[in-house]
Write a structure and sequence with these properties.
- The chain has helices spanning 4-22, 38-73, 89-94, 102-116.
- Helices cover 58% and strands 0% of the residues.
- By secondary structure, it is mainly α.
- The longest helix is centred in the middle third of the chain and has 36 residues, at 38-73.
- Helix 1 (4-22) runs antiparallel to helix 2 (38-73).
- The protein has one domain: Four Helix Bundle (Hemerythrin (Met), subunit A) (Up-down Bundle), CATH 1.20.120.
């Protein structure tokens, strides 16, 4: 169980990350007719695509921060959504919006990797050659 001091520290961290995520910068709208050649247009298109993806990721992270702050209000923050054990304070410092303990997150990632690569052999199943 997290202490009151740890919860305060994590709430401050979440609030700071929320403030930082709100300061999203967008690429300037540059008209393609002002660009010198196709290379400039391609570079601008790539920059705008990256900017759009970053904005989308930050918006998703803002949602996760808000959900974490709501869990704090509901007194469920720091509880793993899969096994209901307490998420380690060190993990929450690294990922304050985390909803899974490290063990459950690793299991989730392993399952995702198996779905993506059904024919791969997990490292834990490898047998050393003699």
């Amino acid at each position: 169980m997290l202490t009151i001091e740890q919860l305060k520290q994590l709430k401050t961290l979440l609030s700071t990350q929320k403030k930082d995520a709100r300061n999203i910068t967008h690429t300037e709208d540059i008209k393609s007719e002002h660009l010198a050649d196709d290379t400039d247009i391609a570079a601008l298109d790539t920059a705008q695509t990256i900017s759009t993806k970053l904005v989308s990721r930050k918006q998703l992270y803002l949602k996760k921060i808000d959900e974490a702050l709501a869990r704090m209000d509901n007194k469920t923050y720091g509880e793993c959504e899969a096994c209901y054990e307490t998420i380690a304070f060190k993990r929450l410092l690294a990922r304050p919006a985390a909803t899974l303990c490290i063990e459950c997150k690793e299991d989730e990632e392993l399952q995702e990797n198996r779905k993506k690569n059904p024919n791969s052999i997990p490292i834990s199943d490898w047998e050393p050659e003699n």
